[in-house]
Amino acid sequence: MSIPSPATQEERDALRARNMEAFKNHSIATARMLEAHNPATKLVFDDDGQPDVSFQGQKFYDGAYYDYVEKQVEEFKRAPYRFGLAIPQPSDLDFYGETFLTNLLKRATVEAKAEFSPRISDLKTFFVTVLGVGLGGHIPKIDEFSESTVMFVIDLNIENLYHSLELFDWEKLMDEKVEKGGMVHFQIGTMPYRISTTSRLTSAS
User: Fold this and answer.
1) Which of 23, 68, 177, 197 is in Cβ range 3.0-4.6 Å of 182 for a Cys bridge?
2) Residues 169-204, buried b or exposed e (16+ Cβ, 10 A)?
3) What is the pLDDT of residues 140-173, one digit of tens each?
4) Cα separations (Å) of 6 from 3, 28, 40?
């Protein structure tokens, strides 16, 4: 079930203010982008309280935002896009590397009784990447089943993130990641090389 949006504009304004303070504390560059942004679209609500984004009278979710989020998450859970890491092979290394890795794998499998899975067995992961903010409804669901420590949030522009400040509790998410020793890292832009390079550097730091 989707998390309902704040019911009144007063509640949404309060959430936006808390979120902006959180961005200033956790991601000052993104906070500055949000403060400077002049939205081209409008956040609107249907009679049943479902949020939507309107551009020149056209609604993006066409009154079915919560259904869209549910389908989006379920489709991902059925066929998640994951990066796996194969078991390293000692024979691929030089003499010293082969000796070291052989001993390391022996200790791991024999002494520590560790098991290496040939494929990804569940949805839990240390890093998770969200491609597209939308209005944020899918993010707590992804966070719940991934149990991630570091979350990368990537979008082409700041527009939807700007609107999501009134709907999604970014402050809570960012604080929880920090408590786990991680972070929420935002990459907003249209340059794939810059996004991938910054993400790799962030994950390595």
Assistant:
1) 177
2) bbbebbeebeeeebbbbbbbeeeeeebeebbeeeee
3) 999 999 999 999 999 999 999 999 999 999 999 9
4) 9, 25, 22
